[in-house]
């Protein structure tokens, strides 16, 4: 999570990257997982974490509504 916080903020409020506090209201799990796996814009793919960890992260972010 500390890697995410460097761009998305400690409370997911946004910093150099967009805020994620309500990302689950805007994107579904599959969309979030695709971004984690492939990257988007200036956000690189999160290949340093396992597929299981990416899945867990996508599930957690989907709950942010």
UniProtKB/TrEMBL annotation:
Keywords: Electron transport, Heme, Iron, Metal-binding, Transport. Residues 50-65 have a biased composition (Basic and acidic residues). Residues 1-20, 40-65 are annotated as: Disordered. The keyword Heme applies. One of its GO terms (molecular function) is electron transfer activity. PROSITE patterns: CYTC (PS51007). Pfam families: Cytochrome_CBB3. Heme c binds at residues 4, 7-8, 43. This is Cytochrome c.
């Amino acid at each position: 999570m500390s890697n995410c916080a460097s761009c998305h903020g400690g409370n997911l409020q946004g910093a150099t990257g967009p805020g994620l506090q309500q990302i689950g209201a805007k994107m579904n799990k599959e969309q979030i997982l695709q971004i984690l796996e492939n990257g988007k814009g200036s956000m690189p793919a999160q290949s340093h974490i396992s597929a299981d960890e990416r899945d867990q992260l996508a599930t957690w972010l989907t709950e942010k509504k």
